[in-house]
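note to self: dont lose this again. the chain is below, predicted strucutre after it. 111 aa total, dont forget to put it in the shared folder this time
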Amino acid sequence: MNAIPKAPRHLSTEAKRWWAALMAEYDLDDPSAKLILQSGLEALDRLRQAQAIVEKEGVTQVDRFGQARAHPATTVERDSRAAVLAALKALHLDVEPLQASVGRPASNKAR
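---
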């Protein structure tokens, strides 16, 4: 069994947990997979930073003309979320379905 490579030091604690979990679950030994994962986790950290700013300062700001405009951090949040999802997609991680059939699960209520 190979040892799990350590996460890059500059990643947040949350991103390092994701690194360890994905490295343990999937075969991400090649350099390109590690680079894609690192890029995705850096985007996750950026996403969390943007979310904190939006939480603190609000979704909108008033511009010099007194008009409400989207906070610039909302764009960073959106773009970072897209980058995280793109990185996960690029890794081609196989995900098992939660159920065998399509549609909503059957009710467990006794009739």
